[in-house]
Design goal:
Elements (H helix, E strand, L loop, with lengths): L2 H15 L3 H11 L4 H22 L1 H9 L21 H6 L1 H4 L8 E6 L7 E6 H16 L9 E4 L6 H13 L2 E3 L5 H10 L5 E5 H14 L8 E5 L5 H11 L3 E7 L3 E6 L5 E3 L4 E5 L4 E6 L10 E10 L11 E6 L5 E3 L4 E3 L2 H13 L5 E7 L2 E7 L4 H15 L4 E7 L4 H5 L3 E3 L3
Parallel strand pairs: 3-4, 3-5, 5-6, 6-7, 16-19, 17-18
Antiparallel strand pairs: 1-2, 7-8, 8-9, 9-13, 10-11, 11-12, 12-13, 14-15, 16-17
Helix pairs in contact: 2-7, 3-4, 9-10, 10-11, 12-13
The chain binds zinc ion (ZN).
């Protein structure tokens, strides 16, 4: 599809699906010229509004704030946030109903996530919240002269379920997106021919790297790429040389999660600007990030432990925008699962457990580790249940077939150390 037609389709789609998107986007764009104190004032009033709302409409936060004598009406200094106990994914799952606001939103949509920590979660996201997520991403793209609707290549997972894949294909078409489903050399070669004039590429950084290596080996040519965006995994320094050579630009990072929305986006000067229009971020004594989503009224996300270790920078970016910077994000490394004949990216488990939640309505906490090639130990939090186990095996089989043998163990509860670990750990060298 050409970019003009695609931008019309995108705008029409956004008008019906996300009516507040362009207003929020314009508001976010205005923040680019604000001073730091103006940004902080804007953030503070949004934050206070959210806290008051959560206290009024979310039974969970009402009880939580009362238990620590926190009165959001009297909230006057950002440091008072530290009074509120942090939340994590297991709380969002176990207290799910109580966290949801009893407020009648005009438009809400169900969001399902399993994420890198391995626990799957569903919650209702209001239209404004969804639009704010999109507006933050659109603003990041605008720094590179890219529109979301421009022709793009997408290096994501390979969800092979047939009905899901038809839906995915239709959505891809509507978004001018070309998706690489499988990472064999033949597929990569054919895919690169399709996207040689794409404006941007995005997806898992380890996959982008893999494709870049193949592009360089084959001497293929990309002339139009303005932005290569890696998500969900650390961008290792070794990726950059191959990516620059293949696509002409370095890989930049977008940092966020379904629950938190966009947290930071890297600008063309190489710094990760915090999305202060939509999130308030802090770190605890261990430098673990705590995120409050300023648009999360339908399911308040307040001081949420995402599981990443981050450091903030005291510097101001030379690009001119005054929003504060994240210096480093540690964690979320991409490791492969070694089958007897093939390798699988660790995020394959994400799809297995997401499908389990979507198709079988089974939400599980899992951790997996590998010590022997072709064998993986899968730990599930909870008691053995024959029907659950057969559903897990069905979904594992869809991706790994007989190439990987799984040993499923049940633990009554993951230890806190275990919870902090990645969902998949490999001990193979
Ligand atoms: Zn900058």
């Amino acid at each position: 599809m050409n970019n003009f037609l695609s931008s019309i389709i995108y705008k029409l789609g956004a008008k019906s699906r996300n009516p507040s998107l362009f207003n929020i986007y314009r508001e976010f764009k205005k923040s680019e010229t604000l001073s730091l104190s103006e940004l902080e004032d804007k953030r503070f009033s949004k934050l206070k509004g959210l806290l008051i709302f959560a206290y009024k409409y979310s039974p969970y936060y009402k009880e939580l704030f009362d238990s620590v004598a926190f009165n959001p009406e009297q909230f006057s200094d950002i440091s008072e946030m530290q009074k509120i106990p942090a939340t994590d994914k297991s709380i969002l799952i176990s207290q799910n109903e109580h966290i949801h606001s009893n407020f009648n939103f005009k438009k809400v949509r169900k969001a399902i996530t399993s994420g890198t920590s391995g626990e799957s979660l569903s919650f209702m996201r209001s239209e404004e919240w969804d639009s704010a997520n999109r507006a933050g991403v659109m603003r990041g793209y605008s720094w590179y002269g890219v529109r979301v609707s421009d022709k793009n290549g997408y290096f994501w997972g390979f969800n092979i379920d047939q009905s899901a894949s038809r839906k995915v294909r239709w959505l891809d078409w509507a978004q001018n997106r070309y998706r690489l489903f499988q990472y064999t050399n033949k597929e990569i070669r054919e895919f690169c021919k399709k996207i040689d004039n794409a404006s941007y590429l995005s997806g898992y950084s380890s996959m982008i790297y893999k494709v870049a290596r193949e592009v360089n080996r084959l001497g293929l040519n990309f002339k139009n790429v303005k932005m290569v965006k890696g998500t969900s995994e650390m961008i290792l320094p070794k990726y950059q040389d191959e990516v620059r050579q293949a696509f002409g630009v370095k890989m930049i990072s977008e940092y966020g999660a379904a629950e938190t929305g966009l947290i930071a986006f890297e600008c063309p000067h190489g710094n990760q600007h915090i999305n202060t229009d939509a999130v308030f971020v802090e770190t605890d004594e261990n430098n673990e990030i705590l995120v409050t989503n300023l648009f999360s009224h339908s399911f308040p996300i307040i001081r949420y432990r995402l599981g990443d270790i981050v450091t903030f920078s005291e510097e101001t970016c030379t690009c001119g925008m005054k929003s504060p910077l994240i210096k480093d994000i540690v964690g979320r490394k991409g490791t492969n699962v070694m089958g007897n004949s093939q390798e699988y990216p660790s995020f394959t488990f994400y799809y297995v457990f997401k499908n389990l939640a979507l198709e079988d309505d089974i939400n599980l906490n899992y951790k997996a580790y590998q010590k022997v090639k072709g064998q993986v130990v899968m730990q599930i939090e909870g008691k053995f249940d024959a029907s659950v186990e057969s559903a897990i095996n069905k979904h594992l089989n869809q991706y790994f077939g007989s190439d990987v043998a799984f040993d499923i163990e049940y633990l009554s509860e993951f230890s806190s150390e275990r919870k902090k670990q990645q969902s998949f750990v490999s001990y193979l060298s």
